[in-house]
Amino acid sequence: MDQNHPENKSEQSLSPGTKKPGFGLALIPVIAMALLLGIGYGVYHLKAQVLLVAAAFLTACLGALLKFSWKEMETGIVESIRKALPAILIMLAVGVLVATWMASGTIPMIIYYGLKLISPKYFLVTACFVCSITSLACGTSWGTIGSLGVAFISIAAGLGIPLGPAAGAIVAGAYFGDTLSPLSDIPNLASVTAGSNLFDHIKHTLWSGVPAWLIGLVIYFFMGLKYSGREFNRQNVQLIASTLEKNFHFNLLLLLPILIVFYYAFAKKPTIPGMMVSSLVATILAIIFQKASLVNVAQAMNSGYAARTGVEMVDRLISRGGLMSMMETQLVAFTAFSFGGIMQKTGMLAAILEKIMKFASKVWSLVLTTIGTAILSALITGSSYLAMIIPAELLGDAFKKKGLAAKNLSRIIDEAGGIIVPLIPWSMAGVYITGTIGVPVLSYLPWAFSNYLAVIILAIFGLTGVTMARKKREDETQAGS
Q1: Could you please report the per-residue DSSP string of 413-433?
Q2: Average of pLDDT values for 36-46?
Q3: C-beta of residue 125 within 8 angstroms of C-beta of residue 170
Q4: Domain of 196?
C-alpha cells in the first residue's frame, strides 16, 4: 500500500472512538470561512488572521462533536505548521535580503538603469517592461504601482494616452515581476502552502508566465504605435532617476548579491545559506559604497530599510524589507494552517476532497478544479494570500495522489489566485490600485493581458499535460524537486 496516498493518511488520522464526518458537516467550516472572509475581510476590512482564527475555532467545535480531543486537533495544527517551517524560514530570510539589497544600493541601481530604457515611441511596452524589472528587483507590485505606476500614469495623461491601457500595462508588468521575484510574498507563500521549493516554483512558473507576458508585450507594441510622435514629459521619471543617483553611489560590484542568489538557485544549493551569504555581501557593500553604518544596516534587517531621500514617491518605492515586514504574511500562514490542520486531522478535509476527486479524477480535471477553486477564493475573499492558501489546503493531497510535483500546484495558485486578485474591483489590491493611480479596475482589467493570459495557458497545460511535472521525492522543499 502506497503511504503517499492521502486516503491512507486520512484513515490513520481518525482515532478510535471518533466519528467520520459527512460531506454536509465538512462543508460547514468552508462555508463559514467564506462568509467570514467575504463579509469580514471584503466588507469591513477586518484582518484575515482574526477571521481565520474564528473559522479554526468553529472547526474545532465541530471536531469536538465528532469526538476528537483538543490534543488530537492540536497535533493536527502542529503537523500542518511543521510542514511549512522550511519555507517560512525562507520568507524570513527574504525580509533580511530585501533590506540589505536596498541599503547596499543594489535594487536602487537596477531601478535607475531600468528607467533609462523608457522610449516615447513605445510607451506601453516600456511601462510594462520597466514595471516588470522594478517589481522583479523589489519584490513588490504595490510598491511599484505606488511609485513608478503614478509616474507612468501622469506621463500617459500628458501624452494623451488612454489611461485604461496605460494602467493595464503597469499592473500587468508589476504583477509579472512580483510573481517571479524571490523577494515577493506571492511566490514565497505559494511555495509554502503547496510544499514546493521556492526557486523550483519560480522556474516552473516561467513556462506559463513568460509566454503570457511576451504576448502582452507584443499587443502593447502594436497598440502603442499610434501614440508615437507625441511630446514626452519625462519629468516624473527623471525625478526618480536623479533622486536615486543623488542618494546612492552605483558600481558594478552592487550586482554581486544578485549573482550570489542566482548561483545558489541554478547550482541547486540550499536556498537560505545563499540568501544569508548574499545579505552579508550586501551589508559589506552598503558600508563601502553607501557609507552606511553597521548599526543602521542591522536596524534595516529588522524593521526594513527606511529611505529618506526627500522625495515621497522614491521613499515609498525603496523603503522595504526587514524581518518585521514578513510578520503579517507569517500570521496569515499560521492561522490558515491552523484551520487546515484541524480540517485534515478530523477528516473533514478528506470528506470534501473525496467529493471533489469524483470530478478531478484526471490530471486535466484536477488542474481545472484547482484553477476554479483559486479564482472562486479570490472572488470571495479579495485576498491574494487566501486565494492561494485555500485551494492548496483543499487539493494538495490530490496532486500527491496523482504523482504530480508540488510545483505544479504552487504555479496554479500563484497565477490563478495571487495575480488574479488585482482584477477584482472589491479586492484590497483593486481598491489600492484605483486609489493610487486613479483608474477604475474595470477600466484597466481588459488591458492587463498577462494576468489572465497566464490562467488560460495554465488551463491549456492542464488539458494537454504539457509541463505538468511528476513528483521526484517526498520532501519537495529541497532544490531540484
Answers
A1: HIIIIITTGGGSTTSHHHHHH
A2: 82
A3: no
A4: 87-325
